[in-house]
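Milestone M4 deliverable, item 7.
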Amino acid sequence: MTEGKSLYPVIEEVGSAFSAVLAALQGAAFAPSARWQEKAFSELFATPGVTALLGSIDGTPVGFVLARSVADEAEILTLAVSPSCQRRGVARALMEKLMTLLAERETERLFLEVSVNNCPARALYTACGFTCAGTRKRYYEDGSDAEVMVREISSSSGK
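Output delivered:
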């Protein structure tokens, strides 16, 4: 893939049949201690309100976002992009598609937690309209804090 070139993935909603694909993508993008196994993805898909969007380029999966909705709120559980495709618009495209889908489902707010040490992810979420709603002290295994972020997303909220 061309260095620095923006990438425009085809994004589709997927289910439990893609658990291994999601685990592999997350495994490539996350530190070993933060990786989820295929079984964890399968178990999440068995719970109500879970949505996964998979981004592919030329038929090759390059990233995904996994969210869970309850009533009029949703939370991003995890987002991962293949290291070779990072910082090229894939995560932004996944976020935009997720927010559009959730707005269509009349979701009003979207939450997430992100490590205060993950500057690229925090910049992405800020660019997508998220604001800080609080901090979870020592939330991650490495002892880092999590910034809780929120964005109003329903069309009635002025999306």
